[in-house]
Amino acid sequence: MKLLFLGDIVGRSGRDAVARHLPGLRKSLGLDFVVANGENAAGGFGITDKIAVELYAAGVDCITTGNHVWDQRELMLTIDRDPKLLRPLNFPKGTPGKGAGVYRLPGGQSIVVANVMARLFMDALDDPFAAVEALLGQHRLGSGGVAAILIDVHGEASSEKYAMGHFCDGRASLVVGSHSHVPTADAQVLAGGTGYQTDAGMCGDYDSVIGMKKEAAVQRFVRKLPGERLTPAEGEGTLCAIYAELGANGLATRVAPVRVGGRLIQAMPG
After folding, report:
1. Per residue in 175-200, pLDDT tens?
2. What pLDDT shows up at residue 229?
3. What is the mean pLDDT of the chain?
4. What residue ranges do the domains of the chain occupy?
5. CA distances (Å), 110 to each of 32, 114, 149, 234, in order?
6. 143 vs 84, which has greater pLDDT?
């Protein structure tokens, strides 16, 4: 099985990059399933039903989110209607939506996708490790179980994301971080066979401050005063992602970064 996880989609530039490049990537890489973090897709803050439909049309199979999931407040009323749009698994009981889903591929195989939010330097949600442990207790990789388990760890601290990777090693196919908007250079297969990268980066304009127009963002640091509202940069976006190939046991045999378009050095699985 071949999977692709797209880093945080930021604004129109990120959405355009996905629409421009993902259909070709699905074909050239022979992708079976694509997951994208969409929590910044609506003007940099949250996601709407309409944008989710656009991303599905571009070739995304499932959308994860994070701390900005409720920035577009109407999503709280509609997220339960979309089984392919996830919010973090470790929100308290009773929160709208769901944090994990089981999706069936055309060949009959099933893939589990889960979205969890870390806690260091983030909102204090329920324990993400306990939430993932409960999930992994319900689903087993390989013969008699599911073909793949992908976990999006939305978090600030690289240490917490690494800890989650090792916590899941041998029990998940791919653990990948989101939220930082900068692709890390540590794509690897862990000792137990789980594919891992600390942050997939973003799909958006890198002539920016993590996707936002640089002038207003810089002034917030320089002046330490409230200023112009942050808005997404509008130049050509780079699609940043991580690619994984899985064996019959559901564990990773290969992971590689993907960067297409825009300003960053390009990267494709060789």
Report:
1. 999 999 999 999 999 999 999 999 99
2. 87
3. 96
4. 2-260
5. 11, 13, 9, 37
6. 84
Instruction: Provide the b/e sequence for 173-205 (b: ≥16 CB within 10 Å).
Output: bbbbbbbbbebbeebebbeebbbbbbbbbbbbb
Report the pLDDT averaged over residues 165-177. Answer: 98
- Contact assessment for residue 183 and residue 199, using Cβ atoms and an 8 Å cutoff: yes
Is-catalytic flag, 166? no
Looking at residue 224, what is its pLDDT?
A: 80
Per-residue tokens: 82: 């979309």
Single out the catalytic residue among 21, 68, 139, 179: 68
Which amino acid makes up residue 160? E
3-state secondary structure of 101: strand
Question: In sequence order, what are the beta bridge partners of 246?
Answer: 252
pLDDT at 117: 98
Domain 2-260: give its CATH code.
3.60.21.10
Tell me how far the alpha carbon of residue 65 is from its chain's centroid. Answer: 7
Cα separation of 252 and 244, whole Å? 7
The C-alpha atoms of residue 22 and residue 6 are separated, in whole angstroms, by: 9
3: left (phi over 0), alpha (psi -120 to 50) or beta: beta
